[in-house]
């Protein structure tokens, strides 16, 4: 009788866990081309397509919303069962998030206006004292502060950062190499209007789930990504949006 009760309890727990894993996720991407953005009224971009393919394989159809980065972070902090589509893990974030991936490499770089690049290069180590801007709450702001730059402005988007740099609101712009040029063009400037002064770090980017998300669901996303990397689907989607040198660490050939 006791053995039967234990079996029944285990069965009920298993059913409850499966039911919880089937509950919907709230999925958010940041507005940052070519990673995730809105086009013709629909979300698109690298991580959006990866998430859509994972969901197709898992038989899910949770909607994806594209919102300003700082709003996505606020939702993840205050709500349950949230998935953010592109996060670089940090010790602080890892206290409240679990990850699936990696998805791609981001190169965190320092940019300056082309007409000021020579003078700024001459500053050498004093470069960190110049006024610096980066997207609020992003890995770019995190790295800028970690490396000792004078972060005087935090913007709500990469597009706004590009415009503020070109308007002289700050001297240096810390941004991803894969997003800086697209942001400039989106704001009506040319890629050649800025110069890359220094690459600060290279980081893997992941899907990030709030820690209340069932482990079974996070594991299923990781398993689907692993299968996509094995069967070529991941590489096909990645090639559409980013160059080969930004493949995630687990897909890069050893030198």
TrEMBL record:
Coiled coil: none annotated. SMART domains: PBPb. Gene3D superfamilies: Periplasmic binding protein-like II. Keywords: Signal. The keyword Signal applies. Residues 27-245 form the Solute-binding protein family 3/N-terminal domain. Residues 1-18 form the signal peptide. Pfam families: SBP_bac_3. This is Transporter substrate-binding domain-containing protein. It comes from Pseudoduganella ginsengisoli. The lineage of its organism: Bacteria, Pseudomonadati, Pseudomonadota, Betaproteobacteria, Burkholderiales.
């Amino acid at each position: 009788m006791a053995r039967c009760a234990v079996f029944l309890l285990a069965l009920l727990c298993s059913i409850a866990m499966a039911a919880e894993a089937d509950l919907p996720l709230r999925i958010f991407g940041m507005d940052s081309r070519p990673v995730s953005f809105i086009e013709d009224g629909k979300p698109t971009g690298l991580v959006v397509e990866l998430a859509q393919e994972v969901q197709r394989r898992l038989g899910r159809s949770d909607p994806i919303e594209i919102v300003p980065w700082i709003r996505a972070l606020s939702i993840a902090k205050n709500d349950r069962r949230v998935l953010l589509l592109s996060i670089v893990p940090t010790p602080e974030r890892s206290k409240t998030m679990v990850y699936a991936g990696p998805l791609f490499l981001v190169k965190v770089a320092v940019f300056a206006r082309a007409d000021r690049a020579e003078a700024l290069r001459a500053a050498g180590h004093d470069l960190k004292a110049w006024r610096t801007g980066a997207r609020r709450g992003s890995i770019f702001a995190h790295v800028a502060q970690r490396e000792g730059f004078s972060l005087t402005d935090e913007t709500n988007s990469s597009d706004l950062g590009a415009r503020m740099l070109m308007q002289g609101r700050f001297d240096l712009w810390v941004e991803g190499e894969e997003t800086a040029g697209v942001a400039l063009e989106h704001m009506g400037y040319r890629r050649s209007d800025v110069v890359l002064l220094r690459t600060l770090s290279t980081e893997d980017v992941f899907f990030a789930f709030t820690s209340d998300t069932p482990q079974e669901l996070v594991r299923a996303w990781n398993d689907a990504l692993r299968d996509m990397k094995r069967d070529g689907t991941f590489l096909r989607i990645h090639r559409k949006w980013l160059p080969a040198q930004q493949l995630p660490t687990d897909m890069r050939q050893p030198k």
